[in-house]
Design goal:
There is one protein chain. The protein is an alpha/beta fold. The protein has one domain (4-68, 102-310): Putative cyclase (Glucose Oxidase, domain 1, 3-Layer(bba) Sandwich). The chain is 23% helix and 21% strand. The protein has nine helices and 17 strands. It has a nine-stranded mixed β-sheet, sandwiched between helices. The protein has a two-stranded antiparallel sheet with strand order 2-3. Helix 1 runs parallel beside helix 8.
Length: 311
């Protein structure tokens, strides 16, 4: 099976979550349109303590990538000048760095152009608009410039009474609702939802191969749940985002295709939600102001991000 549209379940869900044309034929940011000025004002007003929790993994050569994705290399950091007096002896000395890395290598956002199916990307545009010279002509990661909203942690692992879901656990809408119950709140329009499985604990403990596969992740049933609640974006603490291996034999990355292509909803992966889980427990609330601005690489299909939750 080469295309997800060949599977009837995928095709039916795609019809129900499709947002093409919802914000106009020229729209390039999808569900981020749901982050309105009012949503941001309410998110800012939710800050109570000012406690700041970083959610990004360190950018380092010994990173999360295992070679599963060709070319997605962990950050290679090089010093290009060290204490160099570039304007002559006795002047201020400079040290500069350079980095080579896959833009989806560590904690990152996937742009809406990160995947395509049936030759199409979000809003009915041809995937051929992504070229070697210019990257993504439409819906590149440089287009969304305002990813600040109310964040909500759905701690699915703790809702299951565990610190880490088993590999291969498909996170269902019922799991998300159990996590809502644990949080004592409900997901609302314009929210950025962070789904904690606890899987990243394996990487933090030094076993990145166990972290990679098999992995818990979102079920093919979850896009409809996010669509019904008008979620702006979703991120989690896994390498693959969706459950891996897939729920349906030979149907690879259907959640990517439904979220990014059909719905136009950004996805985040490899987010470190461990400290946030602890902080939310201590503060007895699971909502916060979330700042997760993308690096505006023009034409890129993803970007590293250093998100911060402010409680």
């Amino acid at each position: 099976m080469s295309l997800p549209t060949l599977h009837p379940e995928f095709r039916d869900i795609a019809k129900r979550v499709n947002n093409w044309g919802r914000w106009g034929a020229d729209d390039e940011i999808g569900t981020l349109n749901l982050i309105t000025d009012e949503v941001v004002r309410e998110a800012a007003a939710s800050v109570r303590t000012g406690r700041r929790v970083p959610l990004a993994l360190p950018l380092q050569q010994d990173g999360v990538q295992t070679g599963l994705m060709p070319g997605r290399v962990n950050p290679l950091h090089t010093m290009v000048q060290i204490n160099q007096e570039i304007f002559g002896p006795g002047t201020v000395a400079c040290s500069d760095d350079a980095v080579t890395m896959g833009l989806q290598a560590a904690t990152h956002w996937d742009a809406l152009t990160h995947v395509s199916h049936s030759g199409m990307i979000y809003n009915g545009r041809p995937a051929a608009g992504i070229t070697a010279h210019a990257g993504a002509e439409f819906s590149g990661i440089d287009k969304p410039r305002h990813i600040v909203s109310r964040g909500i942690l759905l701690d699915v692992a703790r809702a299951h009474g565990t610190e880490r879901l088993d590999g291969g656990h498909a996170v269902t809408p019922e799991d998300l609702e159990a996590a809502e119950d644990l949080a004592g709140t409900r997901v609302r329009s314009g929210d950025i939802v962070l789904v904690r499985t606890g899987q990243i604990q394996l990487y933090l403990a030094g076993d990145k191969h166990a972290y990679a596969h098999p992995s818990p992740g979102l079920s093919v049933r979850t896009p409809e749940w996010f669509h019904a609640r008008d979620v702006a974006a979703v991120a989690n603490d896994t390498l693959t985002f969706e459950v891996f291996p897939p729920e349906i034999e030979d149907l690879w990355l259907p959640v990517h295709a439904l979220d990014l292509v059909e719905m136009g909803m950004l996805q985040g992966q490899n987010w470190n939600l461990e400290e946030l889980s602890t902080a939310c427990g201590e503060e007895a609330r699971h909502t916060f102001l979330l700042s997760a601005m993308p690096e505006p690489f023009v034409g890129a299909t993803g970007t590293p991000v250093a998100p911060v939750a402010i409680l």
